[in-house]
Amino acid sequence: NSKVKVAYGCDNCDSEFSQWWGRCPKCGVGSVSEREHDMLKVNPKRGAEVSEAAVRTWLRQKPGSVIPKTLADVNMGREHSGLFGMEVSRVLGGGIVPGSLVLVGGDPGVGKSTLLLQISANVAEGSDSGEPVVYVSGEESIEQIANRADRMHITTDNLYLYSSTDIEDIFEKIQPLKPKALIIDSIQTVYLREVTGSAGNVSQVRECTSALLRFAKDTNIPVFLIGHVTKSGDIAGPRLLEHIVDVVLYMEGERYSSFRLLRSVKNRFGSTDELGVLEMSGMGLQAVANPSEMFLTDHNTESDILAGLAIGVMVEGSRAFVIEVQALCVASKSSGRHINGVHVSRADLIIAVLVKQAGLKLQDNTIFLNVVSGISLSEPAGDLAVAAAISSSFLECPLPNDITFIGEIGLGGELRMVPRMDKRVMAVAQLGYKRCVVPKSAEKLMKTLDIEMTILGCKNLKDMIYTVF
Ligand code: TYD
Ligand code: MG
């Protein structure tokens, strides 16, 4: 076949060459062997050596290989509902669904490998039939993973570690083990020999994921994929894959905080409103029993609460973030503004409205405004939290620590509805807050939500000040 181009690739660093080398001239470690570059072209020679029937079947969908299943079948099959004391299982929609493909995304270093290693151990320990779990890493050596497992006191001998980046090789090696679950760390490091380009490029990532999806569906083995989020925020790998996989989880965490949030942004088997809260310790991740403490640790008794702190919620894409706004008003001759994390023009508007419509004499104050942990509040939905923080500092009256604020402020001081009200209220409810101030127009709707939350509808800023102070 004239379309088949022959190239040579290094089995260590994946560099490609137009000629054969004894040792890879790039990394000096791997050996260079012949590689084929025609898309999804079966090479009969190689097919023979890797047992064609066993491996090739996963690479393309066979007609009739996936049988339709009833919803009940799928739900019945859910297993391991006790992962991390429910924290992780809940986000997954109640447990691990056999044959599901789950993508776990997050910034490098946030703890994805740690989480998946612990999930593997959990599943391996809970496997009564003795089926193992296979953790495949293309990023770390087996020794590195074993070291980490040791540090986390993982002792199960039902967990197999394998270091490889070749999808076909992975399928071939794990098939005889008939694992209970397969983990691939990460999707950016694996490749299919038939697909052009090195691991991590768009077509490799997409084709590998498709092959893994077919593998999961055909074998009924759940597969977890780890995907790195790139710096630009545009998730080169994971974003591209969201429509292929069944479940997409994102792991988030502040750089200097030990808390990690696990959020589901897509779930074919459950709700995406679930949030898992975990804490990174020296021995891996632990479920946080009472997530509300996470934001309230420093001021959890009435006497500790400082004036000038208010809680709001912002939504970015499909995700809601609970934020803490801090304000400090200091009486002075000049009326300076030192604003961090809020648009200056927005802050000016809120201050002007507080002066004019709520009667606060802020004009003789220097005002410091800050959004905790460097998040930038870019939505009008945060207006009310900003106004509440400023009012609290100005009035020298702390806000109760169970109250949150959602709403936009108009020039007349009126509170306005914002998009995704329900999502925001759910987000604060999940974190344990008990009261939420919302625009009057949203009150009725919010009261129909099935959550434990006192909804305080307010018409305008004055109304809000009378209600909370
Ligand atoms: P890792 O799971 O390697 O992150 P990712 O796979 O998302 O890139 O974990 C990264 C950090 O977690 C690492 O910097 C060290 C820290 N860590 C702990 O604090 N405790 C632990 O028990 C482990 C295993 C890691
Ligand atoms: Mg990792």
UniProtKB/TrEMBL annotation:
Signal peptide: none
Alphabetical UniProt keywords: ATP-binding, DNA damage, DNA repair, DNA-binding, Hydrolase, Metal-binding, Nucleotide-binding, Stress response
Occurrences of domain RecA family profile (ranges): 77-229
GO biological process, alphabetically ordered: recombinational repair
Gene Ontology terms, MF aspect: ATP binding; ATP-dependent DNA damage sensor activity; damaged DNA binding; hydrolase activity; metal ion binding
Superkingdom of source: Eukaryota
Protein name, UniProt field: DNA repair protein RadA
Organism per entry: Carex littledalei
